[in-house]
Amino acid sequence: MVDPETVKTWTESAGNVAQVFAFASGGLWALQRYRREREKWPRAGVEHVLAHRKLGDATLVRVTLRMENTGKVLLQLVDARTDVYRVLPLDDDARDRLARDDLLDAETHEALWTCLDSHVRRWAPGEVEIEPGESDEFGFDFLVPSDVTVVSVYSYVSNANKRNRSIGWGKTTVYDVGSPAGERRSAAANLSAKGTS
Q: For residue 39, is pLDDT > 70?
């Protein structure tokens, strides 16, 4: 005959083993899910907000670069560059290139406009960090000749996690500065870091 105390002990032991197995299985499942959903690299949404005002013989163009952390890891920025290119009216170089049918770069298929000005902002490591779901803005002011009516604005932000390679986020917006003073917000682009020159 089986002792009831022995049955009780074996039953409790089996229950404890089952409970430990359930906890371990749940932990492994949670770890696998975390690894699947975890992002190693940052993601960002990039947007231009452009405004201009006539200032006599020049036009002030304010470029606000808005960076939004759309990923799940901290976004660290080390530098940002913004260039303003003359589009219209065409200058002599662009007119000559257009006549020779080589205004567009053969590799990038982008027009080779004349750069009017370029600004670079650099930060120390850890100085500019954007938490997931948050955003930050960086402003650049340019003075362009008053005869320029259309500009192309290009911004590039380096990815701090890829410092040894040209990988980051870029944004290009064509903007009409010949119109009365105003403001324009570009459509945000939700981008993973990409290589660029």
A: no
